[in-house]
Amino acid sequence: MKKNTVTLTDNRTGKTYEYNILDAARGPSVVDIRTFFQDTGMFTFDPGYTSTASCKSTITFIDGEKGELRYRGIPIEKLAKEHTYMETCFLLLNERLPSIDEHKEFDLELRHRAFLHEGLRQLFNAFPDNAHPMATLSAAVTALASFYREHLELDTEEEYQAMARRIIAKIPTIAAFSYRHSLGIPFIQPDIDLYFTRNFLTMMRAYPGGKMHLGLHGHEEIKEVEVRALDTIFTLHADHEQNASTTVVRNVASTGAHPYVAIASGISALWGRAHGGANESVIAQLEMIGSVENIDTFIARAKDPNDNFRLMGFGHRVYKNFDPRARILKHLQDELRIELGLNTELMAIARKIEEIALSDEYFISRNLYPNIDFYTGIILTALQIPKSMFTPIFVIGRTVGWISQLIEFKKDKSSKIARPRQLYTGK
Ligand code: SDX
Q1: Among 62, 68, 310, which residue has the most ligand 1 atoms within 8 Å of its CB, making it the best to mutate?
Q2: Whose CA is nearest to atom 54 of ligand 1?
Q3: Hey, which of 316, 323, 329, 361 would you mutate to test ligand 1's pocket, going by the most ligand atoms within 8 Å of its Cβ?
Q4: Chunked in runs of 10, what are the mean pLDDT values of the chain (427 residues)?
Q5: Residues with Cβ < 8 Å from 424, sequence gap 6 or more?
Q6: What's the pLDDT score for residue 392?
Q7: CA distance 298 to 295
């Protein structure tokens, strides 16, 4: 009977070391090397963690080869098509979809928790009008920790749920207030009569008194198709295994810091253009390219090893196939093209870039496919959401994932403080 282990030989000494293979419920197994340093006196070396599993998790599964994504075992295609973002939040937090009553109770609680402490509103005034909303969002979420100190001691399921529901509910309000502050216009308070996503769009767009924004087509109510489009975008962004910002959230939580400063750290990490900041950069890049005729120049730059220009929205550490979320968004774009008046020029440039890149050896050999950020921006632009709010939208969707991963970490009694070592090359 073959043993479920790997054996390593140090050829300098001939000594061998044996390590257990831990099998996954789905996807790659891992080699348990927790005693490697005490056994061998050496560290493993894996900057960027390309071959390292940092934890056990039951939340999200990704198969990079097949382009598969599941939340609590349910395929993302099913959730995006048949369930609301609120149901997906309940699923991520509770390992199952809600009953009708649970769904109603969860939705209602989040509506009530959407309001901010009046003291928090003063914080926004400290920022210049042109502050990027991601800066105010991260600072405001850090400040939340001072308003809810009781969340430092989490023991019961009720305490975990209250802490999680509070931050999920307040993030859209903070994001909308950050945007309104950047325009120098009054804030719109949350409205408990509105569903989560409609409420956010209203806080973004309404005039004082709740009157709808004078849009391109005159006074307009927020259409159901817009709410559904953004709700799907939130679902697609809800969680994504151990990505860079989730790793930051877990690491900050591992020191015993307040859960909300861990979320604020995740917000800061997500801002980078190699991560969640890519969605804003994609649209800026499409606008810079300007027309289909200019694409070849930029593709050449993306391939030039001496040019650090990258095609934003392409490539992924895990997906070496199409990002399933990009596939869903691409279909959504086709459905919404007429109803939302999508910017067909930007869409034409995006489609042409995708067509050229997917047939070009440079991209094929490196498995560079469009990722979620490549398509999000075109739909958000049609929803009259400015580029500066694209990454805050990502934050709104992802907060439930971050807080679910944080809770999983804190409930795991074997969790330890994150403290990697190094290969010292100094004097
Ligand atoms: C997200 O991890 C997650 O799950 C993240 C996310 C989530 O939901 O949390 O999915 C969200 O962050 C999506 C990714 C958004 N970022 C972008 O679109 C920015 C552009 N893409 C990249 O910078 C890059 O592809 C990464 C950061 C996404 C992945 O980087 P890796 O896995 O570390 O790959 P790499 O940098 O080692 O690149 C491998 C090769 C290199 O070429 P060689 O050195 O082998 O010659 O591919 C090249 C890179 O130069 N390459 C690109 C490229 N991305 C990688 N070349 C041109 N354009 C690109 N976009």
Answers
A1: 310
A2: 315
A3: 316
A4: 93 97 97 98 97 98 95 98 98 98 98 95 90 95 94 91 98 96 92 96 84 54 92 98 98 97 98 91 92 93 93 91 91 87 86 90 92 90 90 97 98 95 97
A5: none
A6: 97
A7: 5
Parallel, antiparallel or unpaired: strands 5-10 and 15-22? antiparallel
pLDDT of residue 203: 94
Q: Which domains are present in the chain?
A: 5-69 (2.20.28.60), 74-427 (1.10.580.10)
Name the residue at shortest CA distance from atom 35 of ligand 1.
317
**C-alpha to C-alpha distance for 336 and 229, rounded to whole angstroms:** 8
Supply the residue whose CA is at minimum distance from atom 16 of ligand 1: 274
Task: Name the percent of the chain in helix, strand, coil, to the closest 5.
Answer: 55, 5, 40
Instruction: Give Cα separations from 370 to 208, 314, 344 (angstroms).
Output: 39, 4, 18
Cα separation, 220 vs 1, in Å, equals 70
Give the separation between CA 252 and CA 250, rounded to whole angstroms. Answer: 6
CA distances from 242 to 72, 80, 402 (A): 14, 21, 10
Between CA 199 and CA 401 the distance in angstroms is 21
Question: Which pLDDT does position 217 carry in this prediction?
Answer: 47
Best CA proximity match to 89, nearest among 133, 59, 56: 59
Distances (CA, A) of 417 to 5, 251, 411: 27, 7, 14
Alpha-carbon distance 235 to 401, whole Å? 10
Give the three-class secondary structure for 20.
Answer: strand
Q: 278: which 2 tokens? A: 């890519």
Query: Which residue type does 118 have?
Result: E
Q: Length of the chain, please?
A: 427
Query: What is the predicted pLDDT for the residue at 212?
Result: 63
Q: How many helices (DSSP H) and strands (DSSP E) are in the chain?
A: 18, 8
